[in-house]
Design goal:
By secondary structure, this protein is an alpha+beta fold. 31% of the residues lie in helices and 30% in strands. The protein has a six-stranded antiparallel sheet with strand order 1-2-3-4-5-6, covered by helices on one side. Strand 3 (54-60) and strand 4 form a beta hairpin.
């Protein structure tokens, strides 16, 4: 059974989404710096793969969501769910994929390096 999306007030959303983007930046940079360029500026996380392709992950405050634009799987919208971890708490509005699992899978394939955000 899936935990329903939480209704977050603006300060809570800003804090949780900001923590998640900083976590993604640090974790991806530490593990995959040899394969990509990653930058967080103005609430927008940009990942440029050496092999080609750009990921853009950003906060959507009006919707209280994190959005992902993937060169592999397209556009995704993620709602916050209670639970452990950082990126694993953001779950796709369609299909229920976790942000952490989706990014881990795609970045592992793109860089040919085993990688996990969990």
């Amino acid at each position: 059974m899936t935990t329903p999306a939480m209704t977050l007030d603006e300060p809570s959303f800003a804090r949780l989404a900001g923590e998640t983007l900083k976590y993604l930046l640090a974790t991806i940079e530490d593990a995959l710096a040899d394969h990509l360029d990653i930058d967080l500026e103005g609430g927008i996380l940009t990942i440029r793969l050496e092999a080609g392709g750009i990921y853009v992950i950003n906060k959507q405050a009006p919707n209280r969501q994190i959005w992902l634009a993937s060169p592999v799987s397209g556009a995704w919208h993620f709602d916050f769910r209670e639970g452990p971890g950082k990126a694993g708490r953001w779950v796709a509005t369609k299909g229920g994929a976790k942000l952490s699992e989706l990014l881990s899978r795609e970045l592992s394939a793109a860089t040919e390096t085993a990688f996990s955000l969990d």
